[in-house]
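Let's study a protein:

___
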Amino acid sequence: MLRVIFIFFYISLVLFAKDYSRYIKVVDFNGAVKILSSKSIVKPANYGDLLFSRDNILTESNAYITAYLENKFLFKLKENSTIELLDTYDKKSNIHLNFNKGEVILVSELNANNNLLKISISNIEFMLSGTAIIKNNDGVFRIIFLNGFLAINNGMNIKEFSEVIINNSNVTTNDLVMNDELRSYINEIISFPYLEKVALPNIYREIVKFPDGAIFNSEIITE
């Protein structure tokens, strides 16, 4: 009888652990960060908090939050920013975010289908498999796309190491140029917890060595 109980308890633990890994959880934060649930419950963020579909995350001045989905996805929402988790991996096998305000760094696994992460900004949607930084400057969105796959509105594929400017429905792209800002972002990404679980950190360690003024294109970095 005791053996049967132990086996049942062990199976329950395994199932719980498997389900737990399908949720995005908070792995780092600083300052005033609030989580607004779909039931309009507001609470301060804490280490280990699970994030669910329809949660809104809000950061105040000098605050940030980093969240992680096991072996799949990392994001860092920076100060004075908001993001809504429209769909999370607990519901479907992809993630849909609505980015409203501020600045966010996104790192998702490189996968064959390029469909893990969908982001909505204003009237634009794009799919990302890889690493990008998004900033909203008074309604003009700037995307610093480092590597992987990025497609806008399922029709416009963006080459790696590009800067994308979205103003209303107008989209322009430029090659990335190494400067202090870009180097700071890359060093920030290198410092992410669990980065090695979703990306190849050595790629970023090599990129950050490029001198100021270096112009990037998709042929510069190889695995």
